[in-house]
């Protein structure tokens, strides 16, 4: 499979399309979030494909020769004899690309920046309201502690390549429309690095980094919601050969709370009030994230009414202040009454002109009478 197929893009894909596809696949295949047996190998393949196609120079060589090392395999695209592009010819004659001997780019560096990483962290709703410090345990690539990123067994060093003599490139003749020309190609012996590691580190196998678990404490700011991402610079995967670490992106997932529901930066809750308390009015205490708060229930309160407690909601992520806590009142109607309670309720109904006969409501007027008359005419 070629690099374009690995990333799932066409050969004429733009740099932005390649980047977008890589990010999507990297999030899906990263070993920290995908435990499939082949996830790590696929993640490495996707990362390698992106490293080639995201570099304009490497991509041009790959498109021309079909191999990022510059050696033709007969499958390259581009214009020019034997898969050799016009730009390569002019660089050969006029020294384009700079850096190495004979107008080449010089030896490649083993040291590269590490990949960015993405993890998801679960926080409780109360933690999202006020913010919290979270201690995380993450599996990631870290600089090899044995060779300190040097890739070689301690006490040894890379050896200069005896084929390219440290340049990372070799000259070779090639026929072109301008005749025979000398071109520069990546040295296959050292893979363009100019040096060879003959005695690699036993712990990292010459990569300069190993996978390990490390602890990290992050500050989750107040006001985060599900999907909020925090970027931690230099906390991602360590780069090969002692390269700088990438960034770590921490994505928040706020858990549902059994008592409170979030809507934007407002919180909603339900308070059940006895029928008598709703009718007569009372003062109640309501338990919030900020502790117990007094709530005044006015006489005649109906189910569905809302008491607004200002500045007791979620802290605004950007800006000062907090949302509100909206308490929805639910008036409880008793489902079981004893004989004494039933007698009292009937007495109250009679005093209110809401008498009952054989279990049916009778009234001399008002809304109950109108309702009774309407139902009686059905």
Question: Can you describe this structure?
Answer:
With 378 residues, the chain is an alpha+beta fold. Among the domains are: 261-332, Sandwich (HSP40/DNAj peptide-binding domain); 339-376, no CATH class. The chain is 24% helix and 28% strand. The chain is built from nine helices and 17 strands. The protein has helices spanning 3-7, 15-29, 39-53, 56-65, 86-94, 125-130, 275-280, 339-351, 366-376, and strands spanning 117-123, 132-143, 159-160, 169-176, 179-186, 195-196, 209-220, 229-232, 248-254, 261-263, 266-274, 282-288, 291-297, 306-309, 325-332, 355-357, 360-362. A four-stranded mixed sheet has the order 10-11-15-14. Strands 1-9-8 form a three-stranded mixed sheet. It is elongated, with a radius of gyration of 36 Å. The model is unreliable at 71-104 (pLDDT under 50).
The percentage helix is 10-25%
Mean pLDDT, to the nearest integer, reads 83
- How does the helix and strand content classify structurally? alpha+beta
Number of helices: 9
Number of strands: 17
CATH level 3 topology of the domain at 261-332: HSP40/DNAj peptide-binding domain
Major beta sheet, strand line-up? 10-11-15-14
Radius of gyration: 36 Å
Features:
HSP40/DNAj peptide-binding domain, 3-stranded mixed beta sheet, 28% strand, 4-stranded mixed beta sheet, 9 helices, 378 residues, alpha+beta
């Amino acid at each position: 499979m070629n690099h374009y197929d690995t990333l799932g893009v066409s050969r004429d894909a733009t740099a932005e399309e390649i980047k977008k596809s890589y990010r999507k696949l990297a999030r899906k295949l990263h070993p920290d979030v995908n435990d499939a047996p082949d996830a790590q190998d696929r993640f490495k393949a996707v990362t390698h494909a992106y490293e080639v196609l995201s570099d304009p120079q490497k991509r041009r060589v790959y498109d021309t020769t079909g191999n990022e090392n510059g050696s033709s395999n007969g499958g390259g695209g581009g214009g020019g004899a034997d898969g050799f592009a016009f730009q390569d010819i002019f660089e050969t004659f006029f020294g384009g690309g700079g850096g190495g001997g004979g107008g080449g780019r010089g030896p490649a560096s083993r040291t590269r920046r590490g990949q960015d990483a993405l993890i998801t962290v679960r926080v409780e709703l109360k933690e999202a309201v006020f913010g919290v410090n979270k201690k995380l345990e993450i599996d990631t690539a870290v600089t090899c502690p044995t060779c300190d990123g040097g890739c070689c067994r301690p006490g040894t060093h890379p050896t200069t390549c005896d084929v390219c003599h440290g340049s990372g490139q070799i000259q070779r003749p090639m026929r072109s429309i301008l005749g025979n020309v000398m071109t520069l190609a990546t040295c296959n012996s050292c893979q363009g690095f100019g040096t060879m590691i003959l005695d690699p580190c036993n712990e990292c196998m010459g990569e300069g980094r190993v996978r390990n678990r490390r602890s990290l404490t992050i500050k989750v700011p107040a006001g985060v919601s599900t999907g909020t991402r925090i970027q931690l610079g230099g906390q991602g995967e360590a780069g090969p050969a002692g390269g700088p670490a990438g960034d770590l992106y921490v994505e928040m997932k706020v858990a549902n709370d059994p008592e409170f529901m979030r809507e934007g930066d407002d919180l909603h809750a339900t308070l059940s009030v006895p029928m008598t308390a709703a009718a007569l009015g009372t003062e109640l205490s309501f338990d919030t994230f900020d502790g117990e708060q007094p709530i005044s229930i006015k006489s005649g309160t109906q189910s569905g009414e809302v008491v607004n407690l200002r500045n007791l909601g979620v802290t605004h992520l950007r800006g000062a202040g907090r949302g509100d806590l909206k308490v929805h009142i639910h008036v409880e109607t008793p489902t079981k009454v004893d004989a004494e309670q039933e007698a009292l309720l009937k007495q109250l109904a009679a005093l209110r002109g809401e008498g009952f006969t054989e279990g049916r409501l009778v009234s001399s007027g008002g809304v109950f009478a109108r309702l009774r008359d309407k139902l009686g005419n059905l």
